[in-house]
Specification:
heterodimer, A: mainly beta, three-stranded antiparallel beta sheet, 1 helix, globular, B: three-stranded antiparallel beta sheet, 5 helices, 8 strands, DUF6510 (chain A)
């Protein structure tokens, strides 16, 4: 049996915190495709690539992509309909 | 770590190594102890042909490393939380769970049960410390699951974690248990499935996945 290659949102937390300035693991994301609402920490993360891909654990649609270049961070959030996070964590 | 402002049990750091030619490699490692001033502890498994761990295990006092953290506010346990805590660790997935147990020895009132799955007795991390905690702490139960080779005279035949390993009187879905599961992705998925089949609410289960079992967080990848 092929082993799953993904980790989860905990493994992407450092890169996202550096880009956004707050801890994203407890943020609640709504998937734009299936509507599932879940914590960023529980999303599936594929990061053995030039960028980080965050996928919905229910439908595997892409929720977020983050690519770091030597000078910039590119963040694509179109796969997530909304992000909800407590103000106190900012 | 100069200027370290403290952390929560369960958090991790990202460690980055950069070669002279600019090539860099980054790994995540769980913090294995609760806060202790500016001192932090990492548990690192050496992989002989790994890219990062042989370098780290060859460090000597005073060598500098670059790290980012503490990271994560999801897979954490705070001593003020009184609900029962079920910890389920596979292989090096024990490391952040150990930080939670060590935190509990210093503060808190919650009861803990640890189910720790490893291949063989030689693969147990923190073996003596766990034996001692199990003897001395009336708030702690430890269950060891051996998947390939068990110690002599154990009743349970070696094998992957099963539903019966995870159930115990007082630790069911109706007992208000907070569960933390950490290990290789396949391990986390199968344990979570077993717990949900037993009736545990998905919202009461927090997970941290390391990826394929050969590439766990506290190993090289």
């Amino acid at each position: 049996m092929t082993q799953p290659t993904h980790t989860d949102g905990n493994a992407a937390a450092g890169a996202f915190a550096t880009a956004l300035g707050f801890d994203v693991t407890t943020a609640m994301l709504t998937c734009a495709k299936c509507g599932r609402i879940g914590a960023f920490a529980q999303s599936h993360v594929y990061h053995r690539a030039p960028g980080i891909v965050v996928r919905c654990p229910n439908c595997e649609a892409v929720l977020a992509r983050l690519v770091q270049t030597p000078t910039d961070v590119w963040l694509d959030l179109r796969g997530s309909q909304s992000w909800r996070f407590p103000v106190a964590d900012r | 770590m100069p200027g370290w402002a403290g952390h929560l049990a369960g958090q991790h750091i990202d460690l980055k190594l950069t070669a002279e030619d600019g090539y860099s490699a980054q790994r995540s490692y769980s913090l294995s102890k609760p806060p202790d001033g500016e001192r932090i502890e990492l548990t690192i498994q050496q992989i002989p042909d790994g890219e990062v761990s042989p370098y780290l295990t060859g460090l000597t006092a005073g060598d500098e490393i670059e790290l980012r953290g503490p990271i994560g506010g999801w897979f954490v346990w705070r001593p003020g939380e009184a609900t029962r805590v079920l910890l389920v660790g596979g292989g090096s997935g024990i490391v952040p769970l150990m930080a939670m147990l060590r935190q509990r020895t210093a503060a808190g009132a919650a009861r803990f049960r640890l189910v720790y799955s490893v291949r063989s007795p030689a693969d147990v991390y923190y073996g003596q410390e766990l034996d001692r905690l199990e003897r001395e702490c009336d708030w702690l139960q430890v269950v060891r699951v051996f998947t390939r080779t068990g110690p002599p005279h154990t009743a349970r035949p070696p094998g992957r974690i099963e539903s019966s390993d995870l159930s115990s009187p007082g630790w069911g879905p109706a007992d208000g248990v907070s569960t933390y599961v950490c290990g290789p992705t396949g391990f986390v998925e199968s344990v979570t499935t077993l717990l949900i089949k037993q009736g545990h609410q998905p919202s009461a289960i927090r997970t941290e996945r390391f990826g394929p079992s050969t590439e766990s967080r506290n190993e090289d990848r």
